[in-house]
Amino acid sequence: MRQNWYDTHRMLPEFWNILGLLAAGAVSGVIGALLGLGGGIFLVPALVLAFGVPMHQAVAASLVAVIATSSAAGARNAEAGVANVRLGMTLETATVLGALAGALLAHRVPDRVLLGLFALVQFAVSAMLWRRRAADADEFAPAQGGLLDGRYFDPAKGRTIHYSVRNLPTAVSTSLGAGLMSALLGVGGGILKVPVLHLFCGVPMKAATATSNFMIGVTAAASAVVYLRDGYVPALISATVALGVVAGSQGGLALSRRMSESGVRRVFAAVTLVMACAMLRRVLAG
Amino acid sequence: MPAEPETREEGRLAGAALRVGVTASVAIMSAALVLSVLRHGRGETLAWLGVAVLIATPLLRVVFLAAAFARGRQWRLLAASVVVLGMLASGILLGRPG
Fold it and tell me: Is A119 part of the contact surface with chain B (CB cutoff 8 Å)?
């Protein structure tokens, strides 16, 4: 019966469904703020499994939510200088290209294939979240006067961090893949970019996360306009979820000062694993 | 060496663009939600508008940054911004017809 809800109530979702969608958005906003993720990895399966939204429409709605997450957090991060605006703008040429390719490809890919791909990514994300993230090394290549050098004040360390970006071609090619993944699956793609920026390009973890988050808005906008033209964006569902996301990310920021990140990480890894199994079941059931 | 005031100004402009877009879209989407709960016909239309404003927000941010790069004579970064804007525009034009 859940399956029919989407078709019959697309125009005017019932009150309880609206509350449910707001809650789903809020949870993904909280997760985004606490773990530096776009939130799509939770939102897409929530829309598909709990609300019976078809995969393509769920991806489109999630892309709108990713723009909300990125823009809300991005304003703060850009002003504080934690997000490296110049590096972001440079890499966006690649993420947007990947996103356009993905979005133009998406309507040729059957729902079931997208579901299967999503489940695979969920398993990988779950494993990555469960294992501890590499400790943030303290020393980076000192700023050498490059165009993309970054500097920001880290309150935890009590000092200003300077760094130079290395291996730009690696960052560019990863960004291309992240854009493609974002457009096909409705996620931000930070799960690819953040480790590469941190481990191979000399960007401190905080700056890598903030810069990736800053970039996913433009990336998602590129594919969202294509989904919009193709008629896949469910307006009321997307708007409701986006409102939840904005509220949730504010709440998440307040919570992040009181909660241990590793605890949240483990819990969310388990939730992602359960959702991955449910998505896989949906694929196998056809 | 990028002068610090220059990068700060870029971050400030990008942040301002994002704030304006998010505030406007949240206001419109909230109104849309209230109208849909009241089963008013305009709810759906307003939701479309709110989603459109939200999608346009990152574009506005790129435009603001392009202006900041032009003023700072950062031609390579300006070129990157223009390429991104061009691709975003082509996405609007290249969507599946019909």
Answer: no
